[in-house]
C-alpha cells in the first residue's frame, strides 16, 4: 500500500528535478546576458579608435529575423569604391581606359583624403551585419574594393591601405592567378592573412547574364573552391563582371554559398538588395576632392 501511496510523490519529485535541470541547462550563460553588443572597431586611424555611428542600441540582433528588403533599401548606403588598375598612365591608354586606371600618386592622395576625412574601412561581413541585422558601424564607414586580380593591388594598394590601418576587398578572377602583371596565389593568401577579404570575380570575367548550366560550375563553383583552398576561408562575396547582373543570376549565387553580391552604380533590386549592392568606380580622372564629391552624391 505504501508504494501506491508514494508513487505520485516520487513522480512529482522526478518532474521537479527534470524541470530544474532543464532550466539550468537552458539558462543562457551570464556572459551572454551581460555583454552589450560591441561596436565593431577593426580599423584604427593613427591610433585613435573610431566612434560608432549612432544606431539605436540593439539587443542581440543576430537573434532577430533578418531585415526585409524594404528595410535594407531604406538604410543609409555605405559608400563603396571600386578600383581596377593602379599605375601611371601610358601614351597608349585610351580615354576610356584611364577611367579604370588610377595613377599611383593619385591613389595615395585619394586614400589619404579618406583617412584625413575620418573614414574607416569596413569589411563585407560588417556591411552584411549592418544591412541585415542593424549592427553598428564605425563612424564614416567606407568599403574599398579592387577588381580583376591586378598585381598592383598587392604592390601598390596593400601598402597604402596598411599605412592607414585600412582593409580592402579583393575580387579575384582565378584565371589570372600567377600570370604576368597579376597576383600569385601566395599574394592572394598574404592579403587574406593580413585581414583583407577575398571575394570571387568569376574564372575569366564572363558576364553572368549569359551563363548556361556549365558556366555556373566553371565561372562560379570552381573559382570559389580554389579561392577557399588558397585562403582557407569560405568565399561569401561576389562582384559581377562589368557590374552586370540579372534576377536569374541571384538564386544561382545564393545556391553557391554567397551572402551578397556587388554590382556598379545602377539601382538595386527591390527584392534582393543584398545581391545588388552598389559601388562607384573611383575614376582615374578624379582628384581626391572630386572623388569625395562623387561619393557624397552617389550614396
Ligand atoms: Zn572586373
TrEMBL record:
InterPro entries: Glyco_hydro/deAcase_b/a-brl (IPR011330), NODB_dom (IPR002509), Polysacch_Deacetylase (IPR051398). It comes from the Bacteria. Keywords: Signal. The keyword Magnesium does not apply. GO terms for cellular component: extracellular region. Residues 140-299 form the NodB homology domain. It is found in: Secreted. One of its GO terms (molecular function) is hydrolase activity, acting on carbon-nitrogen (but not peptide) bonds. The keyword Signal applies. One of its GO terms (biological process) is carbohydrate metabolic process. Transmembrane segments: none annotated. PANTHER family: POLY-BETA-1,6-N-ACETYL-D-GLUCOSAMINE N-DEACETYLASE, PTHR34216. This is Polysaccharide deacetylase family protein.
Amino acid at each position: 500500500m505504501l508504494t501506491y501511496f508514494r508513487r505520485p510523490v516520487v513522480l512529482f519529485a522526478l518532474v521537479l528535478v527534470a524541470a530544474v535541470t532543464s532550466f539550468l541547462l537552458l539558462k543562457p550563460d551570464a556572459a551572454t546576458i551581460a555583454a552589450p553588443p560591441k561596436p565593431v572597431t577593426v580599423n584604427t586611424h593613427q591610433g585613435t579608435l573610431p566612434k560608432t555611428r549612432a544606431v539605436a542600441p540593439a539587443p542581440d540582433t543576430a537573434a532577430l529575423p533578418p531585415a526585409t528588403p524594404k528595410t535594407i533599401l531604406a538604410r543609409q548606403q555605405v559608400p563603396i569604391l571600386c578600383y581596377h588598375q593602379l599605375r601611371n598612365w601610358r601614351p597608349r591608354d585610351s580615354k576610356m581606359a584611364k577611367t579604370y586606371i588610377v595613377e599611383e600618386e593619385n591613389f595615395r592622395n585619394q586614400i589619404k583624403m579618406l583617412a584625413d576625412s575620418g573614414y574607416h574601412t569596413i569589411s563585407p561581413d560588417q556591411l552584411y551585419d549592418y544591412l541585415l541585422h542593424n549592427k553598428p558601424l564605425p563612424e564614416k564607414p567606407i568599403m574599398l574594393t579592387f577588381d580583376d586580380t591586378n598585381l598592383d593591388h598587392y604592390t601598390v594598394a596593400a601598402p597604402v591601405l596598411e599605412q592607414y590601418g585600412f582593409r580592402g576587398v579583393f575580387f579575384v578572377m582565378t584565371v589570372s592567378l600567377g600570370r604576368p602583371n597579376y597576383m600569385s596565389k601566395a599574394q592572394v593568401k598574404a592579403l587574406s592573412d593580413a585581414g583583407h577579404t577575398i571575394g570571387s570575380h568569376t574564372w575569366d570575367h564572363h558576364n553572368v547574364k549569359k551563363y548556361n548550366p556549365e558556366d555556373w560550375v566553371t565561372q562560379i563553383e570552381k573559382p570559389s573552391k580554389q579561392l577557399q583552398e588558397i585562403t582557407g576561408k569560405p568565399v561569401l562575396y561576389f562582384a559581377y563582371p562589368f557590374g552586370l547582373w540579372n534576377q536569374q543570376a541571384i538564386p544561382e549565387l545564393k545556391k553557391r554559398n554567397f551572402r551578397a553580391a556587388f554590382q556598379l552604380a545602377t539601382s538595386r533590386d527591390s527584392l534582393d538588395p543584398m545581391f545588388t549592392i552598389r559601388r562607384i568606380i573611383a575614376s582615374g580622372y578624379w582628384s581626391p576632392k572630386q572623388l569625395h564629391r562623387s561619393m557624397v552624391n552617389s550614396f
